[in-house]
Design goal:
Helix 1 packs antiparallel against helix 11. The longest helix is centred in the first third of the chain and has 15 residues. The protein is 38% helix and 22% strand.
Length: 325
């Protein structure tokens, strides 16, 4: 957490352009995801720390949008100096494929190895399926829920359906429906029996998913070989979600993981090789991160473990995100 704070402070200094003698207020926007998501809590936690450190009058605007797919667009267009994203979405943005129709080659990773998310397809047990393909094979009219368009969970859900020979139009043709909403709505829909399946990317013990499984019997759907084969070339990493990652999950689940990174915008400048210049804020941030003890620990262990291992006091909001107590 100290590393992330250092990165944000350096970037804020670059945004302000103020001298050390007379620091001026800065405006710093941070792209996360909808309220109730882990990323929004993450952003709010860091904003709370920044407000105590930045010059008086500074504004830290934590945006409840636009998710793993949408944030690279915001950063590339300089609508937000910072944004949380995933390795796969940054890759797609850079290459201009999958969720992106144009190359966003000015995206720069500032901090990697922050956390890892599982790609999950979670169905109610009463639906009676063990794989996404059974929706097509059994012609089931399912009520699909995801986070809003712009979140990786929503787009990854489309990719899972595509691998099974389905799309949103096919879901509706079978009598089903799709809803792309925040977790507060998703939780109520499962509790009230209005939802059949959730596509999402989540951390272990993710608070919203944990709330659902505490009151609804669910089945985490594993990926079959053909689906895994379709996803791996896109940059996903094959993994197994261990038993009891969530309450009632008795068996390991074959899935994919996606690492999280903090991203910024790459400045389009050219400096002569013979000219000595001060490093940019992004360059300073990158050097700070790579030389830090926290970063070395965090890239080798899950975030919650790393926070406990290093001399870092984990804020309560961050403990909620990582599932630590």
């Amino acid at each position: 957490m100290k590393v992330l704070l250092a990165v944000l402070l350096v970037l804020a200094a670059g945004v302000s352009g103020a001298s050390a003698q007379a620091p001026a207020p800065v405006n710093l926007a941070f792209a996360t995801l909808d309220t109730g998501s882990a990323w929004y809590v993450y952003g709010a936690t860091m904003a709370e720390l920044l407000r105590k450190t930045l010059p008086p009058g500074s504004n830290i605007d934590v945006k409840p949008r636009a998710g793993g797919v949408g944030n690279p667009r915001l950063v590339a267009k300089n609508e937000t100096p910072l944004g949380l994203s995933f390795t796969v979405t940054n890759r797609w943005a850079f290459e201009g494929k999958e969720a992106y129709t144009e190359k966003l080659d000015n995206i720069r990773a500032l901090v990697g190895g922050l956390d890892t998310y599982y790609l999950v397809a979670m169905a109610t047990k009463k639906l009676g399926i063990t794989s996404v393909r059974e929706i097509r094979d059994k012609k089931l009219p399912v009520r699909v829920y995801t986070q809003p368009v712009g979140a990786l969970g929503e787009f990854a859900g489309r990719q899972l359906l595509r691998a099974a020979g389905l799309g949103y139009s096919e879901i509706k043709a079978l009598g089903g429906s799709t809803q792309h909403v925040g977790y507060n709505v998703i939780i109520d829909a499962f509790k009230d029996g209005r939802a059949d399946i959730l596509f999402a990317v989540v951390t272990p013990k993710h608070p919203s998913v944990s709330e659902i499984v505490s009151s609804v019997d669910v089945e985490f759907l594993g990926l079959d070989a053909d689906t895994a084969k379709a996803l791996l070339p896109l940059g996903y990493v094959a993994a197994t979600m261990p038993p009891e990652t969530f309450k009632g999950q008795a068996k390991p689940v074959s899935t994919m993981i996606v690492p999280v990174r903090l991203s910024g915008r790459r400045a389009r400048t050219t400096r002569p090789a013979t000219t000595k210049t001060m490093p940019t804020a992004v360059e300073i941030a990158a050097r700070t991160v790579k030389s830090s003890e926290w970063f070395v620990v965090a890239t080798r262990k899950p975030l919650a473990t790393a926070a406990r291992s290093a001399s870092v006091q984990t804020p309560s909001a961050l403990r909620v995100i990582t599932g630590s107590t």
